[in-house]
Amino acid sequence: MGLECIQFCGSPGGEVVxxxxxHPELAVDEVxxxxxxxxxxxxxxxxxxxxxxxxxxxIGVVHSIGSDVSSVKVGDRVGWGYPNWTCGKCEWCLRxxxxxxxxxxxxxxxxxxxxxxxxxxxxxxxxxxxxxxxxSSEDAAPLMCGGSTVWTPLVNHVKPYHRVxxxxxxxxxxxxxxxxxxxxxxVVVFSATESKRDEALRLGAKEFYATKDVDDYSxxxxxxxxxxxxxxxxxxxxxxxxxxxxxxxxxIFPLTAxxxxxxxxxxxxxxxxxxxxxxxxxxxxxxxxxxxxxxxNSVHVIAEKFPMTLDGVRAAMAxxxxxxxxxxxxxxxx
Length: 334
Known about the structure:
single chain; alpha/beta; seven-stranded mixed β-sheet; CAD-like; oxidoreductase; zinc ion binding
């Protein structure tokens, strides 16, 4: 017998619709997860006009497992993010960098009948993660994508003596501040206005600078140069504005999904040895470590909560689209 569930899907007209779906029998490597919570990510807005189940920041309880599944059992609390499967055979998988597998099956491109805005989803065992007991499901859900997005450049490229600039205090930025501060680095936050100063400092920032209507960022009074710059705002940023604040060999990480062109000053980039590095989610190993670190160091998500109903999903999507979310949305069946 298949498993029946409720799903919230995109549609060609851009309106979220509710459907009923019956999952077929589990394959040997599949896990049926009863969803309890789902985060909402900016990339979910990209798919509201696609006939697919929305959502990819899921927390739930294992309902049943395929015959070959060994890493989780019925009753375990688990989460998942963007990928559902990687090949395990390509150069990137063999190097332990499975988040760059060219053959992967990910949200929005494969398994369109699976998503976190649902009552039950069937996932491959490979990309499921056990949630630490001390972590709430509300905190865990946004860490499955948003958290891993900021965690990866921090653990791969930041040393304890670096000064890390974070541009934007939103769904990504408020997590980046906490992760970076709890790693022991100096965190410098840039935001358009003064409205989030106190919150940024409470989250762990050492310095805060408001940039609206400032043409020359060298006049902001930044105490020392920046070694790593994380672009966490969803709005387009003029990277050249930050160049006077960067140390030689600084690295810039654009972290939000966006269209259009990324332009930088040519000679200044070369002369100062600056690097602009793309980065995407986390490897399976690093996703596990991100959850453990967050639980151990009390990294908490600032979230608005919505019921997992058609009205709740529509309201959360609308608030996200309007740019009013502070800072992540978490939807729950509970």
